[in-house]
Amino acid sequence: MQTKILMVCLGNICRSPLAEGILQSKLPKQNFIVDSAGTGGWHAGELPDERSIATAQEHGVDITYQRARKFRTDDFETFDYIYTMDMSNYKDVLSLAPDEDAKQKVKLILNELFPEENVEVPDPYYGGLNGFENVYRMLDEACSIIAKNLQK
Ligand code: 4NP
Hints:
Rossmann fold; four-stranded parallel beta sheet; globular
């Protein structure tokens, strides 16, 4: 059986597409499914932001197969782990959880790196390319830990 992991941010065009691509690159495809979604639906159907695509490409990760979509309540049934990028996404997703089992699946992604510190992945949308590289590095470290723990 495959383990399913969902990455969630606000628009699903900047941070969670990077998180999806990075984690997928660290896990064997036959055992894991990695997807991403946004709590907002404004960018549904779009490619990731060109700055996320470029930053991932520089690190040898292709995210151009991805298309944005909105988070849905049935994602709680589909996925085993739901990683959110910031406290706002965390609270928004948690507020949609139908039961305690669903709530337990929702985590703040950088708590994997800095346990219980509630550090957020900053939204790079309104900044320059440098912000995307910064986000990439944070997510790369967090995803290394997640990938290691999932394969124990
Ligand atoms: P993301 O960044 O949540 O990392 O995908 C954003 C992208 C677009 C918007 C907000 C955040 N927006 O408001 O359009």
